[in-house]
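[Automated response] Your request has been received and processed.

Submitted sequence:
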Amino acid sequence: MLIDTKEAFRNELRSGTAATPQEEVRRRERTRPLGPKALEIIREPVGEPVSRVVLTGMVRIGDFVLTALVGALVYGVYLYGSLGFDGLYMALLLAAPATTVLLLQALNAYRVNQFRSIARQSARIAAAWTGVFGLVLTTLFFLKAGAEVSRLWLGVWYVAGLAALVGARVGLYGLVRGWTQAGRLQQRAAIVGGGEAAEKLIADLEASNEHDIRICGVFDDRGDERSSDMIGGYPKLGNVDDLVEFARHTRIDLLIVTIPMTAEARVLQMLKKLWVLPADIRMSAHTNKLRLHRRAYSYIGNVPFLDVFDRPIADWDVIVKAVFDRVVGAAMLVAFAPVMAAVALAVKLESKGPVFFKQRRHGFNNELIAVYKFRSMYTDRCDTNAAKLVTKDDPRVTRVGKFIRKTSLDELPQLFNVVKGELSLVGPRPHATQAKADNQLYKDVVDGYYARHKVKPGITGWAQINGWRGETDTADKIQGRVEHDLY
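Generated structure:
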């Protein structure tokens, strides 16, 4: 049943069916603001999250580099003048740090909770580092190479390396403590569904110490007679529609659905609303009678969950993409500087007004960002909200504007947005707030339209290179574009 439910839901999303007129009426009529408790949480300062996966990975890399660097420095001071680059020493400078990382991993020293205690960290580091040198000495003995390696070098490396590792952990302790107090190491979660199931889940999570979950509140579509205002010590902040709005105004990393999997229709109805958010979605599995293999579950502490949706880009992928965007974006700015200067001059010479045109568009998680373009319209006819589509031979467009729009040169200033981190080089194109197709706003034409904002928008994307660009005068055109964006 679980497999059928998830597959049925995914098939519904792939179909790209537009919302029915009744659904659109309900969507437009819904103007009820969020409640005071939800607004109070929204007002809380929330820092950018620090990925636990990236943090522990960086600590592993740091341990390897630090221990190898200390050994190399000691070698350079005492032995380089007489030995130069000796092969045996170089092998030890790589093997010992690598083995240290493996031993620390085996001792569970790379868990974030371990970083919060200097005593626990220091004990594990001392055990691992001592074990590595014991292994080095044993290996040298059996290889009959003990006489070829300086005991002074090994001794100084052991003492200096241990001091460096412990010192680095002291600094890490301070960082983790600050990030914890700021909530940057926490997963901000919302519970979907109330009642006894939600209360049991909350109790089990709180009884497990191996997690960093900050439950913001509970959202449930059922009335107060079946779902009270306080569930497991946390307030009920509204219904599922309120959760979608709530997550647009504050960071939510995790959505936990406590509704039983047997309530298939209700689960699908809720997930169809929630999948547009840039958050991981998990279904609570600890109360289900069906028991799957342990590997079928993901765990928060000791509590099992079934994965429904993951954020498209997370952990190391975020780092890699951000570095790629900024490095390549900056290089492209330098490379295209002469072309941009020529376009700017042409725009300025043809008509009065600024060279750049700034327009507010939807970015990641539906946030509004100011996107830059070269101005392609006459200043007094610019449409900052894109309320009216630009058509062929549009009288608002200048002669230079027609050329730079056709060749996409008007998009080059968006490289500044890329370097600033507001856009990516590749991603769904950001649309203007009032952009329309067939005289309807995009969000009213395509069901699940906002799911394209689960990632950072880009200068170009899968839709554009597959021909979905230009005018969107019909519903089919924006439907096809969004389907490619989601793909």
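Summary generated for your ticket: Confidence is low (pLDDT under 50) at residues 1-6, 13-31. The chain has 18 helices and 14 strands.
If you did not submit this request, please reply to this message.
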